[in-house]
């Protein structure tokens, strides 16, 4: 049945009778079931496109009522016949239809870009369209992909001869786009526009045989635009990823580079340094420490302190840093250590001790878990091994023996001492001929750590004891070896047995060594 109708339509097309052919197509659509309409519509649309004019638009209107997802066919038809008004109207209708789904998979953004292209390129052929309102509607809908639409709007104004308005649009665009990709697209279009403006002014001056002030002004505007590029790109990056530590550091680096530029005046360089510090202040205020990306907030605080010109300003920044929220306890510990090292570099041991004492002081319960992220870093930093290690080093370098001992004892009490800490404490006491205190330090460490760590401490402890007393305190030495072996897993006991045998062989009885 459909073949007869299709042959009939082909026959009528040969007759070149538009009205009768159209009526035959209409009769075929009424006679055939809906499932077979697609075959008729293919021939009907080819006939309508061949005829063109009002007939084509009338046929497409009927077709799209049944197949709205094929609206792009009408757009393509209008474009191929250079019917720009009709093409624009068709695109606007598609975009206004919130339920439209393209059969070709074209996104809504792709349709907007196509509409912007028509409005920009064929603006003189369009009538009754508020181009700026239409484009700004698209920009509002696609704030994260608005680069192409902004560029098209600027080019449209430039094509209309409204240079100042085009510049205003480009300026608005480079300060409002949200992605680096859009910024690159808009800035390139802006730079090309300014270059074209300069070229036009130069050509005008050549024709009239003079050098105009307008040309010099355009050149200055172009130079300033190119100079601003890095800062404008930084603005976009910060809008796109406001919690990026690296983005803020790059922003401050731009001001530092400007401050180091010898071509600038002293006043300009001083202003650049002020802007660098202001940038750091904005950064630490804007970034949420727990949402920071590409780095940690402590990096910003320390860079902020380094940017200050005098010690009092640096101390003020570092004091603010240790009081500020941090993303982790490791970050806060890093700031405290850096603060103390800054004081040491200035020769202020008391200043360093003040900072480290502040970090290790804790009035509340000492049962806080150092790794418990639900507790604020400021309430856990007193258990930082890094801070305590530096505090011990400062005490030791300053010759404060009692303070060194107190610090080591406090580390053991807080259960933050490592086996190496115990060894360091014992050796410190041994170097000062406090041998019994040194041995007690080993015993405290052994009691603190279970096997297999304890066996390593036992090996060091027993060797030091034997080296110290030899065979003069043999019974006490034997008791220590027996304590070491008591409860020691068999897989860790061999070094102790070997050392015990050597002790008996050297200072004791051979039969005990064999036993």
Description:
This protein is mainly α and 515 residues long. The protein has helices at 2-15, 18-31, 37-51, 53-66, 71-80, 84-96, 108-121, 131-141, 147-159, 163-174, 180-208, 213-240, 245-259, 266-286, 297-307, 311-323, 329-345, 349-360, 385-397, 401-413, 419-431, 435-448, 453-469, 474-485, 494-507, 510-514. The longest helix has 29 residues, at 180-208.
Based on the model shown, name its key terms.
single chain; 515 residues; mainly alpha; 26 helices; 0% strand; elongated
Radius of gyration: 41 Å
Total beta-strand segments: 0
Mean pLDDT: 83
| Silhouette | elongated
Give start-end ranges of low-pLDDT stretches. Answer: none
Terminal CA distance: 110 Å
Judged by helices, strands and strand pairing, the structural class is mainly alpha
Percentage of β-strand residues? under 5%
Compressed to H and E, one letter per element, the order equals HHHHHHHHHHHHHHHHHHHHHHHHHH
- In this structure, how is the largest beta sheet organized? none
- Measured as a percent range, the helix fraction is over 70%
Count of DSSP-assigned helices: 26
């Amino acid at each position: 049945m459909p073949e007869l109708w299709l042959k009939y339509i082909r026959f009528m097309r040969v007759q070149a009778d538009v009205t009768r052919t159209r009526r035959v197509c209409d009769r075929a659509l009424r006679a055939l079931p809906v499932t077979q309409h697609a075959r008729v519509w293919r021939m009907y649309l080819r006939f309508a496109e061949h005829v063109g004019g009002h007939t084509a638009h009338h046929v497409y209107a009927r077709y799209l009522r049944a197949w709205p997802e094929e609206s792009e066919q009408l757009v393509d038809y209008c474009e191929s016949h250079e019917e720009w008004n009709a093409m624009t109207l068709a695109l606007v209708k598609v975009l206004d239809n919130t339920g439209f789904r393209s059969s070709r998979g074209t996104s809504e953004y792709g349709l907007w870009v196509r509409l912007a292209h028509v409005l920009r390129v064929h603006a003189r052929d369009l009538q009754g369209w508020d181009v700026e309102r239409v484009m700004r509607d698209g920009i509002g809908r696609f704030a994260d992909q608005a680069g192409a639409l902004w560029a098209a709007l600027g080019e449209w104004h430039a094509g209309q001869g409204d240079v100042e308005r085009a510049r205003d649009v480009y300026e608005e665009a480079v300060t409002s786009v949200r992605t680096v990709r859009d910024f690159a697209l808009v800035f390139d279009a802006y730079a090309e526009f300014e270059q074209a403006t300069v070229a036009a002014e130069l050509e005008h001056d050549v024709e009239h045989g003079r050098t105009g002030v307008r040309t010099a002004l355009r050149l200055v505007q172009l130079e300033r635009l190119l100079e601003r590029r890095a800062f404008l790109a930084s603005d976009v990056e910060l809008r796109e990823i406001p919690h990026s530590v690296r983005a803020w550091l790059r922003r401050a680096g731009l001001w530092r580079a400007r401050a180091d530029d010898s071509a600038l005046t002293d006043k300009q360089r001083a202003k650049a340094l002020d802007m660098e510090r202001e940038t750091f202040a904005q950064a630490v205020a804007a970034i949420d420490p727990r949402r920071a990306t590409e780095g940690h907030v402590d990096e910003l605080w320390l860079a902020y302190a380094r940017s200050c010109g005098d010690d009092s300003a640096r101390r003020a920044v570092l004091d603010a840093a240790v009081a500020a929220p941090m993303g982790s306890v490791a970050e806060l510990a890093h700031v405290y250590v850096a603060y103390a090292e800054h004081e040491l570099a200035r020769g202020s041991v008391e200043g360093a001790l003040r900072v480290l004492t502040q970090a290790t002081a804790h009035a509340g319960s000492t049962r806080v878990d150092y790794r418990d992220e639900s507790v604020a870093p400021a309430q856990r930093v007193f258990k930082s091994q890094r801070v305590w290690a530096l505090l011990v080093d400062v005490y030791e370098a300053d010759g404060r023996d009692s303070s060194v001992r107190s610090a080591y004892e406090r580390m053991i009490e807080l259960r933050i001492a490592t086996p190496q800490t115990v060894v360091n404490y014992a050796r410190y006491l041994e170097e000062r001929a406090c041998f019994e205190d040194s041995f007690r330090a080993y015993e405290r460490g052994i009691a603190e750590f279970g096997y297999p760590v304890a066996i390593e401490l036992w090996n060091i402890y027993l060797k030091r004891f034997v080296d110290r007393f030899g065979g003069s305190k043999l019974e006490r030495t034997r008791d220590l070896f027996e304590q070491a072996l008591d409860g020691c897993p068999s897989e860790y006991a061999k070094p102790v047995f070997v050392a015990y045998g050597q002790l008996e062989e050297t200072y004791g009885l051979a039969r005990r060594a064999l036993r």
